[in-house]
Amino acid sequence: MPPAAVEGRDRARDVCPSLLAGACAGAFSLPNLPVEADPVRLAAGLAPLAEAEHAEHVLGSSGEAAVALEGPDVLTAEALRWSREASTAVSACCGDRLTEAASLPDLLRFLGPDPTSSEITSAMQLVPPYLSGAVVSADAGRSAAFFGLRLQDLGEQGALLDTVRGVLPPPPPGYRAELAGLPVLAAASYDSVSTGRYLGNVAGIVAAGVMLSLGLRRRSDAGRAVLAALLATGWGLWLVQLSGQGLTPFTVALGSLTAAVGCEFTVLLCQGHGERSVHRAVGLAVASAVAAFVVLGLSQLAVMRQFGLYLAASVLLSYLAARLVIWCLPARL
Q1: Entry pTM
Q2: Domain ranges of the chain
């Protein structure tokens, strides 16, 4: 190897500790990176968002969560008493953020504070089906009290729903109480995405490494590919931390998004053994991928703009990581 090349490789190896430290800093910062989950911010730039906000202003809410009670018969005096206590507890603790829309106790308010089971059954025969069916199932095995809530950050929404769960009284024996509705599912999905950050980032890289180790003639190339993907992921997370922008549900698994291109570039450069045509082809692939993802930055949807820019940056970082790994750990015939 020419002396100049040896000297350049020694210099590259000198900066490796600093680059490795940056990747580790990014990996360790992952649990503390904020995940943007406010629908208003994620959908910023879309015309329907203004319509949704107008509807929320008129109706007072944009979604509904239900406090549901399931059991053998929700039209008994004991079950109705629980539903009334639950609605009162929720309104008392969260009345400024939740608005009661409909409930069985509200529907049967005319019966007074302590009706008997027979009075409840008789009253339900007088209530029109289009009203009773909204809060009680046809077989009387489930009732629900609906509460309206506004568009808000899903993390805050999850905390609000946890508060609601905490104030609900114990259900009667043989009954089960739960929260239901689209806001509940959205909050649970956010919690799942947020708590599974390391798994989502590492799983794609590990899977790619396993497949490459099985398919490549030299397993050392698979190791280089995994190392490049890990470096690119760590650098990307480090840059996200420095920028203060945070992640979105689209980019929280940045490692898995980076694994494909990072491994691909590394394997191609390893197989090329320094051939100029291979390096030129990889360079063109990097340029075309970056250009394609940058186009997403022109989207009117804020979350899509960030997604495109993050992917473009991940492609560049993957290419730099692949070049660095091969430069420091050259492939041999």
Answers
A1: 0.71
A2: 3-32+197-328, 47-191
User: Which single residue is written with the structure tokens 């929404």?
Assistant: 157
Per-residue model confidence as pLDDT tens digits over 246-300: 787 778 877 777 887 888 888 888 876 667 787 888 888 888 888 888 888 787 7
Residues forming beta bridges with residue 64, ordered by sequence position = 148
80 CB burial (10 A radius; 0-12, 13-18, 19+): buried
Q: Name the fold adopted by 47-191.
A: Alpha-Beta Plaits (3.30.70)
Q: Looking at the domain that runs over 3-32+197-328, which CATH code has it been given? A: 1.20.1640.10
CA distances from 248 to 33, 192, 272, 310, 326 (A): 10, 13, 36, 10, 32
Could you tell me the CA-to-CA distances from 131 to 126, 179, 253, 296, 308 in Å, in that order? 11, 21, 45, 47, 48
- Please, where are the H alpha helices in 1-76? 3-29, 39-42, 47-59
